[in-house]
Amino acid sequence: MGDGEERLRNSCHNNNHNNNHNTNNNHNTTTNNHNNNHNTNNNHNTNNNNHNNNHNTNNNHNTTNNNHNNNHNTNNNHNTTNNNHNNNHNTNNNHNTTNNNHNNNHNTNNNHNTNNNNHNNNHNTNNNHNTTNNNHNNNHNTNNNHNTTNNNHNNNHNTNNNHNTTNNNHNNNHNTNNNHNTNNNNHNNNHNTNNNHNTNNNHNTTNNNHNNNHNTNNNHNTTTTTTTTNNNNNKNNNNITTTLLSLFVQTFIGVRKA
Distance between CA 245 and CA 250 in Å, rounded? Predict the structure, then answer.
């Protein structure tokens, strides 16, 4: 019994455990280049012009809700002699949401040369970019139960999760040229552009190019020619009437005297 107890005491010696847990979580949400160029040239040469220019630009960029649950549960139960355990857990989580280049060029040229023009230009541009809800659950459960002698265990766990949502190039060019040369024109130009970009690794690129050219040329040429000719014949007619009346009166008086 003495020798047996001595062997049991020595049975839990010389355990070499090399547990290398290398977890590299690289989260790079980088290089968002937003170029918003709003060039509005309003040239008003007129009387009584009501111009309502409403430019509402809502750029909502949400790269949210990255839930990373890395659970490493390693239960090493070694009841042996001379066990060499090399557990290499290399987990590389590279999340790169990069190079979102948004070029929004709004060029609005309103040239109004007129009287009594009511121009309502409503430009509503809603760019909603949602790269959301990336749920990464990496569960590493390693149960190594070694009940033996001289066991060499090499467990290499290499997990490479590379999530690349890259190179979303959105070029929205809105060029609106409204040239109004007229009288009493009511122009209601409502431009509603809704670009909803939802990337759960989905790339939807919508390029809406709206060119509205309104050229109204009203040329009114009215020529009124009035010719008035006055002939003077009343003088002669009056003289004839007077002569006839004189002869009638003289004749009437002569008859009365006779």
Answer: 9
How distant, in Å, are the alpha carbons of 94, 170, 212 from that of 105?
33, 11, 16
Three-class secondary structure of residue 224 per DSSP: coil
Spatial neighbors of 114 by CB under 8 A, at least 6 apart, are 46, 49, 180, 181, 182, 183, 185
- Chain centroid to CA 76: how far? 55
**Spatial contact of 156 and 91, defined as CB atoms under 8 Å apart:** no
Q: pLDDT (tens digit, 9 = 90+) per residue, 85-114?
A: 555 555 555 555 555 555 555 555 555 554
Alpha carbon distance 186, 192 (integer Å)? 19
Q: Pull the structure tokens for residue 169.
A: 């190039």
Report the distance separating Cα 191 and Cα 173, nearest Å: 13
* Rounded mean pLDDT for each run of 10 residues along the chain, 258 residues in total: 45 52 54 54 50 54 51 52 54 53 54 51 54 51 51 54 52 52 49 50 41 44 49 46 68 67
Nearby residues of 171 by Cβ (< 8 Å), 6 or more positions away: 103, 207
Candidates 191, 192, 183, 189; CA nearest to 214 is: 189
- 91 forms bridges with which residues in the sheet? 23, 159
CA distance 36 to 30: 18
Interatomic CA distance for residues 26 and 131, integer angstroms: 17
Quote the pLDDT of residue 20: 56
Rounded CA gap, 83 and 63, in Å? 47
Residues 6+ apart with CB under 8 A from 240: none
